[in-house]
Amino acid sequence: MDDTADILIIGGGIAGLSAARALAPAGHRILVLDKGRGPGGRMATRRVEVGGATLRFDHGAQYLTARDPSFRAVVAAWERDGVAARWPAAGADTWVGTPGMNACVRAMADGLDVRWGVRAERLRREGALWRVEAGEAVFAAPTLLVAVPAEQAAVLLADAAPHFAARAASIRSATCWAVMASFAEVVPLPDTFRSDTGPVSWAARNSAKPGRGGPEAWVIHASPDRSRALIDQPKEAVAAALLGDFFAAAGIAPAAPLHCEAHRWLYALPEARQGEGPLFDPALGIGIAGDWLHSPRVEGAWLSGRALAQATACAL
C-alpha cells in the first residue's frame, strides 16, 4: 500500500522545510522525503572523533545572513531558542547554527513528518495523485513540491513535468571542494580567511564559532576554478592539495594535521536569477522551489520555499 499524504515534498533542506512549515498550520498531512541520513543538506555538520575529542565541522554553508523581515524573525527565534548565535568574525549581521549549522535545519524539521534516507527515484501522475517511487517504497499525494538542487530537479522532473525540468536544466552550479582539518596547535591566523583570486576562497576556524570549542579545527573551501580542476580527483589527494594551497595563500608555515578529509559539494553555488519566484502548476498540482529560483543563500532558499507554500495554498 502507498504511504499517502495531502502534500508530498521532495527535499528536506531549507527550501523544502520552509514550505512544509508554512503549509502545516492549515492542517494538511505533509510528508517530506530526503535522501540524507539526517538534517543538514548543504548546511551539514560533520562529527569526527580525534584523539578522544569530538570535533564538529560545518563543511557546507559557513554562516547565514538575514535581511528580509520575515526571515529575520525566524532567525531571532532560533537565537532565543539557542539554535543560532551571531558570529561577527564573518561580518555584520551573520549567524551560525549552534552547536552546528545543521541545528537550524533540525529545528525546522521538528514536529514535521520527515523521512530521512529516502531517495526519490521516479515520479508519475496517476489520475488525481502523484506517486513517488523510492526504492521499494511508494508515496502518494495530490500535490507534489520538489525542493532539490537544480541539476537533480532536472533529472527527476524530466518525464513528470518537462516544462519545470527545462527551467532547472538551464541552471549551472559551481562545485566546491571542502577540507576539514584539525591541528595540535593554533594556526596563526584570524578566525576567517577570504580570497577572491587564489585557489582558496574561504577558510574559517570552525572551533572558534559559538557553541563549538575543542581542538583547533578549520574548514577550507576551494575556489570554483580550483574545485573544477580537482573535480574528479580522489578525496585524499584533494585534501592534501588544498591544505597546501591554504598555507601558501595565507603565507604561513605548513602544519601537520591531526585529521584531514575532503568533501565534494557538486552543486554548491547555483547561478540563480536574483529574485525569481518559485514555479507552481495548479493544473498538475506540482511546484518547485530552491535557492536557485531566488538567490544562492540560506535566506534565498527559505524565501523560495515560503513563496511556493503561498502559491500552493492559493491553489488548494
Keywords:
316 residues, alpha/beta, FAD/NAD(P)-binding domain, Polyamine Oxidase, Chain A, domain 2, 2 domains, five-stranded antiparallel sheet, 8 helices, 20 strands
Description:
By secondary structure, the protein is an alpha/beta fold. It folds into 2 domains: 3-35 and 117-171 and 272-315, FAD/NAD(P)-binding domain (3-Layer(bba) Sandwich), CATH 3.50.50; 173-270, Polyamine Oxidase, Chain A, domain 2. It is built from 8 helices and 20 strands. The radius of gyration is 20 Å and the shape is globular. The protein starts with a strand and ends with a helix.
What's the short version?
This protein folds into two domains: 3-35 and 117-171 and 272-315, FAD/NAD(P)-binding domain (3-Layer(bba) Sandwich), CATH 3.50.50.60; 173-270, Polyamine Oxidase, Chain A, domain 2 (Alpha-Beta Complex), CATH 3.90.660.
